[in-house]
Design goal:
Blueprint (H helix, E strand, L loop, with lengths): L7 H39 L17 H15 L18
């Protein structure tokens, strides 16, 4: 414990002890987080690897209106002349 009116050496000793305690706790938390991270990595590596289903390479039947809307949207976004060569579905959850 520190006295009511500590000397400079007591203050310095108190500060150094507090710093050491803080560093030890931070080091312990670092080690703990590292160990938990290794468990997560190991658990993730044990999962069976799933491959994404391949989309068919057949062209999509789109109306000319949809193609025009896509071309107009692309033109507005990139702000320069362009030509839409192909429209493909994305591989996102929820797309059917």
């Amino acid at each position: 414990m520190i006295s009511e009116y500590p000397t400079i050496s007591q203050n310095i000793q108190f500060i150094i002890n507090g710093f050491i305690i803080v560093m030890l706790v931070l080091g312990l938390l670092t080690v703990l987080c590292t160990i938990i991270g290794h468990f997560f990595v190991r658990f993730e590596n044990q999962k069976p690897q799933t491959t994404k289903p391949q989309l068919p390479n057949q062209p999509i039947d789109l109306s000319p209106e949809i193609v025009a809307v896509v071309a107009a949207a692309v033109n507005v976004i990139i702000k320069q002349p362009c030509r839409v060569l192909e429209i493909k579905p994305t591989d996102q959850p929820g797309n059917k």
